[in-house]
Design a protein that fits this description.
This protein has one domain: Response regulator (Rossmann fold, 3-Layer(aba) Sandwich), CATH 3.40.50.2300. The protein is an alpha/beta fold. The two termini are 21 Å apart. Helix 2 packs parallel to helix 6, helix 3 runs parallel beside helix 4 and helix 4 runs parallel beside helix 5. The protein has a 5-stranded parallel beta sheet, with helices on both faces.
């Protein structure tokens, strides 16, 4: 894989099968490879490969997303990676914590679901 394509990779910390399918489909439509990870350590290790975007479910049980966002945004090597996280629309506290930790975008699950293709298109570099 060449560097340009590698840098357009999406890293996703998502456990919900419905979202996994949606992200995979939207990424495919935008020509972006996507890699799924399940744990904090896997995400931090793979983030070193400089993906274009990290998508994170703030409700994932196998990791600590807010702490991860903070770690990614305070590390010199990963601070410039865009982080898109999503949460249930009723979880205002969690949304605020993710924003304070440095997430670039925090949105409701429903909004992400509706706008995923357009969001990924912006990150793909495609016209």
């Amino acid at each position: 894989m060449n560097n340009k394509q590698e840098s357009r990779k999406i890293l996703a910390l998502v456990s919900d099968l419905m979202f996994t399918v949606k992200i995979t489909e939207a990424a495919k439509r935008n020509g972006m490879p996507v890699e799924y990870v399940k744990t904090d350590s896997d995400l931090l290790e793979k983030a070193g490969e400089k993906p274009q975007l990290i998508i994170m479910d703030l409700n994932i049980a196998s990791a600590e997303p807010v702490k991860l966002i903070e770690q990614l945004k305070t590390s010199e090597s990963t601070k410039d990676i865009s982080i898109l996280s999503y949460v249930s629309h009723v979880q205002a506290d969690l949304k605020q914590k993710a924003q304070e930790a440095g997430a670039d975008v925090v949105m409701a699950r429903s909004a992400l679901s509706q706008n995923l293709i357009q969001i990924l298109k912006r990150h793909s570099g495609k016209p």
